[in-house]
Amino acid sequence: MSAKKATKAKASKSIVLSDRDWPEERWRELLADLVGRGFVTWQHATALVLGHLNPPQVGTQVASKAEVQAHYGKGKTWQAVKAWLYAQSGKCSKCGTRLELQAHHVIPQETRHKPRKHHLENFALLCRRCNVIQRASHKKGGLTFLTAESALMWLLFVRQPATYDEFKKLCREYGLTMADIRFQEAWAMAVWLKKEGKYPFTGQSAAYPK
């Protein structure tokens, strides 16, 4: 087993809470409940999804890079990048989603002595989540389904911790490794909803565990 796989296996044992066990129906119920409680509207949720379906801005992210332009010429780079983009499947090459696609360097751009690392054949479309997983700093990346920002709200709305300390404990058990200040920022949602008498939730939805 490689060192990287060993680290992943060791990290996975520390994941107490997992969203990977949720079937599609639970996600549907959760979104319907958030709408039903007035936290979001169908219009806002749909608009957000449509925005994340918008193809990646490779014109600014890739074609504008001086390192890429050096290979294709400043006046011809966009045409080359556009041809590369249109030739893609329009899905993340790792998980297959169409949401939040980004241009990913297969050979990391930090790698030295790889002159073709900025050629278009070295780029692949990955979703934001799968792209982040590739980074060495994200040792627990991919062990859970949600991105960190989504996981914070999933823990808050689904588990409904009564106190910040309980929320922080849940975040660590889930596997989140960021600084505590990120948890404190996320806890603001509970503070805001408490002012409206909406947290913790009253009534029990099928979307949430008893």
Gist of the model:
Helices cover 48% and strands 5% of the residues. The chain contains ten helices and two strands, in the order H-H-H-H-H-H-E-E-H-H-H-H. A two-stranded antiparallel sheet has the order 1-2.
SSE blueprint:
Layout: H1 3-12, H2 24-36, H3 42-53, H4 58-61, H5 66-72, H6 77-86, E1 101-105, E2 123-127, H7 128-133, H8 148-159, H9 164-174, H10 180-195
Antiparallel strand pairs: 1-2
Helix pairs in contact: 8-9, 8-10, 9-10
Describe the structure in your own words:
This protein has helices at 3-12, 24-36, 42-53, 58-61, 66-72, 77-86, 128-133, 148-159, 164-174, 180-195; strands at residues 101-105, 123-127. By secondary structure, the protein is mainly α. It folds into 3 domains: 20-54, no CATH class; 55-137, no CATH class; 144-196. Strands 1-2 form a two-stranded antiparallel sheet. It is elongated and about 60 Å long.
> Secondary-structure element sequence?
HHHHHHEEHHHH
Quickly count the helices. Answer: 10
Helix content: 40-55%
Q: What is the count of β-strands?
A: 2
**Shape category:** elongated
Provide the number of structural domains: 3
Unreliably modeled segments: 4-16, 204-210
Task: Considering the chains and any ligands shown, give keywords for the structure.
10 helices; elongated; mainly alpha; two-stranded antiparallel sheet; 5% strand; 3 domains; 2 strands
